[in-house]
């Protein structure tokens, strides 16, 4: 048979009747037995002969061509529900792809693939179903730095601390149905750091679920990456806490998604300057003494004293009062060899210093819806 596109399934507007699944007592057509032996009997000579029912034949051809048309148009079949499978959940093999509406990756119809064998769950379970990406490897929450001042083409928004929500939420960043998947993920993973708002812009507490808050036209704040860099959580992926970003060390809780901190400049305290001291000495003068002037009474007649008395030197001026001995006769006691301590004065103004590494400013951080 030559391949052709089935634009209109056979019997689309014709008379059709459902075919029973189980075998029928009268031998009529069923899904299990198909058209039985009675259909090859001659109705003119055999009372057990059956004629092929037009409406059921139309149903068979219509169903076959609808299934083929779906593969032609969508590449993958629809997810088989429990109802489709007669009340039993269908068991998918690993790698099988299906189309499903309302799965874990978003509200619309998307293509998922089974991650495990014997998979009887629906694509609402992200641990058992992966999302098939066709156009680009971007998915809800995919974040990257962006060089330019305008957003790229496609479903991207800035991580600038504004809010997102439904079309009736009055969100400040994006109010549209296409942010639902991002809203749900932010609600689930940032229970403390991202605030919810009602449609009037007032902060509100979280409801019973993300879906309930979305339905109530709540808006949620986006992570604020303005002027900030990005670090992985200190316990990323459930690993043991590394202790590289801590409250005691940086003021930031490295295990809380959405925690933020850091400053552009910092002013050092004395305790941060390192343990140190200042010392020094002055020059030593050696053992020495200091002379001071000595005086004696003035007499009209010189006195000669050879015993080394206090008036052994000098001459009487003939004036009343005292005269100075030359050279002086009184000296201080020797101080011996010694040094003198000193204290240095304070220096520096205590100004803050720059705390920025070499940097380059681009457009910012963006996230995929």
What can you tell me about this protein's structure?
It is a single chain. With 369 residues, this protein is α+β, with helices and mostly antiparallel strands. The protein contains 4 helices and 17 strands. It has helices at 54-74, 180-189, 210-215, 247-250; strands spanning 97-101, 109-114, 129-131, 143-146, 156-158, 163-165, 174-175, 196-197, 203-204, 219-221, 265-266, 291-292, 295-297, 322-324, 330-331, 353-354, 364-368. It has a 5-stranded mixed sheet, covered by helices on one side. The protein has a 3-stranded antiparallel sheet with strand order 1-2-3, with no helix packed on it. Strand 1 (97-101) and strand 2 (109-114) form a beta hairpin. Mean pLDDT is 84; it is low at 305-320.
- The largest beta-sheet arranges its strands as 7-6-10-8-9
Number of helices: 4
- Span of the ends, CA to CA: 44 Å
Helix share bin: 10-25%
Number of strands: 17
Features:
single chain; about 375 residues; alpha+beta; three-stranded antiparallel β-sheet; 4 helices; about 15% strand
